[in-house]
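Posted in: Structural Biology > Protein-Ligand Complexes

Title: Requesting predicted complex, fe (iii) ion in pocket

I'd be grateful if someone could produce the 3D structure tokens for the following input. Sequence and ligand are given below.
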Amino acid sequence: MLFRQLYDQESSTYTYLLADSKSHRALLVDTVLEQVERDFKLLQELNLTLSFCVETHIHADHITGTNQLQSKTGCLSVVPAQAHSACADRHLKDGEVLTLGNISLKAIATPGHTDGHHAYLVNRDRVLTGDALFIRGCGRTDFQSGDAGTLYDSVTQKLFTLPGATFVYPGHDYHGLTVSTIEEERQWNPRFKGSDRNAFIEFMNALDLPNPRKIMEAVPANEHCGRVVSALER
Ligand code: FE
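-- Reply #1 --
Done. Output follows.
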């Protein structure tokens, strides 16, 4: 399997490129509109055909590149079953597996950052955690039907119960960190380490963060696979 971690500096977003080396078919997880040319060029250079654009959730901080990549490549869009998407070709349910050659992507419902959020376990040795779990942090829970208690349960009951050696690849990083493991996060993630459910909820609810700059355009666009929609369509 080919595996690449790509970064968008403006939104601090990681996009993941996974490809089956035999069939040269690829999938991208959490693309960013401003990086579509970068991703398309890389696909061409590596001689890959894009089969799927997969989302971990409906993002509020950036617009997905899915719609543009669909026009360029004819790929299918895949979103969590609970995500509010008006355009997806496929809705994955909790536990469902998306297969592409020698790649298996198993959906793990991990709500809390948003109500329809999935982490994806890749070939059982690495997990794309989206905005549920960051390296030494986690996604915020104060909009898009986010809920701190639900996120606590998702992380502690669904992600932290994976084998300790599972690599953790997050949806964002704001400190230059790229990869961790489940064991490392169980031990050192300050949001969860030594914090019970109530303390976590209290901490998350007191964060008082400003809204992402692009939330008003990003959420409706992402509900349409990244197509910028007029106010009438929302
Ligand atoms: Fe997010």
